[in-house]
Amino acid sequence: MNKDQVKGRMKEAQGKVKEATGKVIGSQRLEDEGKIEQAVGKVQAGYGDLKEDIKDEIKKAD
């Protein structure tokens, strides 16, 4: 795993916690922040996954 994968998945988890907390306490703002953070985390993790896939393909080619 590379740092983008780790950071992205951590951000996704933090977003889920924020969203759940927002639902529990009735804060739409916190819930929305959580959803946004999850989306950002997914993008970052996806970028990290892509980097790993490219690295693996380069290794296969050598």
Topology:
Elements: H1 3-25, H2 28-61
Summarize the model shown.
With 62 residues, the protein is mainly alpha-helical. 92% of the residues lie in helices and 0% in strands.
Structure description:
Helix content is 92%, strand content 0%. The protein is mainly alpha-helical and 62 residues long. It has one domain (3-61). The radius of gyration is 15 Å and the shape is rod-shaped.
Helix content: over 70%
**N-to-C SSE series?**
HH
Which structural class do you get from the secondary structure elements? mainly alpha
- Using only C-alpha atoms, the radius of gyration works out to 15 Å
Instruction: Kindly give the count of domains.
Output: 1
Tell how many strands the DSSP assignment holds. Answer: 0
Largest sheet: none
Beta-strand content: under 5%
| Intertermini distance | 21 Å
Give me the number of helical elements: 2
Shape: rod-shaped
Low-confidence runs of at least 5 consecutive residues = none
Protein traits:
rod-shaped; mainly alpha; single chain; 62 residues
